[in-house]
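User: Some background: our group keeps a shared notebook of sequences we're curious about, and every so often someone picks one and asks for a predicted structure to add to the entry. Today it's my turn. The entry only has the sequence so far, pasted here. Could you supply the structure so I can complete it?
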Amino acid sequence: MVDKKSEDKSKELPAPWQQIQSAIWLVGIAILFWQGWWWPGILILAALSGLTQAGIQLYVNRGQEQAAIETTRAKLLPATCPSCGAPISASTVHWTGANTASCPYCNANIKVTELA
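Assistant: Of course. Here's the predicted structure to add to the notebook entry:
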């Protein structure tokens, strides 16, 4: 069973991104106070904040997914090239597909191994 607190933590933005959200609100409130645009300015500020948070969350999630894919690829890639026997790693091969790579030495097509 998934812990409710850890699930809520995964939905929160990391600290640097939360500071950007805080800055948007502080600057927005300052502009609204300075210009006297309380209505509908506060609604525009809330919408701008929500859109920014959604965009940031999408960016953070995409980065986490990419890191997970790279970690999985690194685990499934053989240690040596099946054609030339050269040592290979996930950072040195050229990925040609989700489960295929190209050897940097002999250009052979390498398929990742399946998990046992």
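Suggested note for the entry: The chain has a mean pLDDT of 79. Residues 25 and 45 are 7 Å apart (CA to CA).
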